[in-house]
Amino acid sequence: MVVKALVQLLHVPGGVKLLLSARPPGVRLIREDQVYSELRKLQDRLSSEPWEDSQEEIWFGRLSKISRQLLDFVAQHTDPDADLPQLIVEWMLHVSAKVGVAHRRGSAVGLMNAQTEERLRRFLAAAQLRLEDLVPVDARNNVLSSWRQKAASLREAGNWHFALDQIPEESVLGSGSFGTVWRARDCHTGQLYAVKNVLVPRRGMSKVGERESDVAERICAQPHKCVVQLFHVCHFPDLRLYCFVMEICGKGNLKNWIWDMRKRLHAEKQVYNPPPQAYHWVGQVLLGMEHLHTKLNMLVRDLKADNVVLNGKGHAKLTDFGLCRFGKEATGDWTFGVPPGTPAYIAPEVIRGENYGDAADFYSLGVLIWVILTGGLTGLREPSAASDDNNNNTNNNNNQSNSDNNNRIIESLEPVPPCAKMAHNWDYSALAENHKLMASCVTDPEPNLATALPSQDARDLVLALTSEEPHARPGFEQLRSCALLRALRLPAASASLDELEAWLAEAPPANRQLPSLCLSCGGLGCGLCRPETPAAVASFPSSGGAAKDTTGQAASKATVGTAADPAAAPDWLLEDLCE
Question: Which residue range(s) make up the domain with 31?
Fold first, then answer.
């Protein structure tokens, strides 16, 4: 490993001089005593780290303080806009070449290979995150000079964090009731992040920030490939501001993705069909939800298409945990005076103020699956002016029968599920009938302004998940074996990050051509069309309730070496640089 090789330079005659002689042009002159001091700090940090996990991402996480220390040291001797990771990589390549010449008589054995260089870049990218090193950038990842000047003046005054409350519009990715999400870049590593600013009101909703902060801490400690990774949480009481630094998912949220797709298809006079990735998205959402339920012991309570984001590879991840609740059971009390969640996705027992558990999230999952596979309602019914008086005493909803000629149909491309109309802003009781509207959309789609689901298996699954009775909704194990999802071969809840990454690699690209016949999806795009294999298949809606999940720890472990032995020969240095 390169860091180990650097520490070895302390014990190699002329090692520090060799390091300085390999200095790239972008790094200013450094005194030998400064280098000695920095290398000793690295040695102390390296020797104090307990190497127990073999997974590289966890390993890099443990080394994050060391990588940040390297970046800080080089930053002190470069220009403010220098590409620090690139300079360090060049420096190590020069050192590697010099070591190869000095100790192998010109042999290429001493040269860092492409794999080593890539690991070094990943190591530097994993540097310990500091919020003060993040700067807002525009869509082209350029730092906005006006903000930089403002932040510099605030930093000189000792109030750098006040700049976080003045994010330029060009950096904003989205905003909602509780906060704004903006695009940020680490000025040292060049890594891009999404930062969510949650401004907490003085009264009423102050618990939202605290709750999301608590959830974020758990997710930081136990990450999952199907949950947006959280790197850092900061609270600034003087600004009443929470900042959550997350991985950036460049393809936006699932709702907007489907919406854009429907717009394109509509312009071409085509109808929505689920894309090849659709069934994988369902599986990825299921795995993320399972992680929150079984490993973090919490309910999601706001699962919807808006809160599922797509990363650069098109993989779905859960995000926005402001309404999560610790524990698997909840009373029917509404903490904020309203039912937790988004109206069309909320389970009927939550609306009725009854005690509820994880089955409420499975209801939301059923609604989400319907949206993914159908694209949402094709239109909305609105009462015409002539019928307003006649409809005052009726429970109107956007799925009324076509026989009501007084209602005019407004075409809609927005991917929304059916939802009862409320007589007034606090008429939440009307939402308890949403499961009936969903059933109508599934069983008789056209009159209810809906698109038919692609298969009987899909219809059975959505009806089972959106059942009025919580105990009738299938759980994780039943969903794994159901006819619609079994071909995905979902990893176990105990799967390691590497195993999840390998499974995600099987997801089809957007342009993949699929066979016309598939036993799971009928050829409409599960991405894993394959011959029938004997398997236990769950049948719906006869399931007897949410299945119990068995979880365990399944991670291989290996011991990674600590600081180098001072008595080691220079060959050690050569091997470490090539490792």
Answer: 2-128+566-578
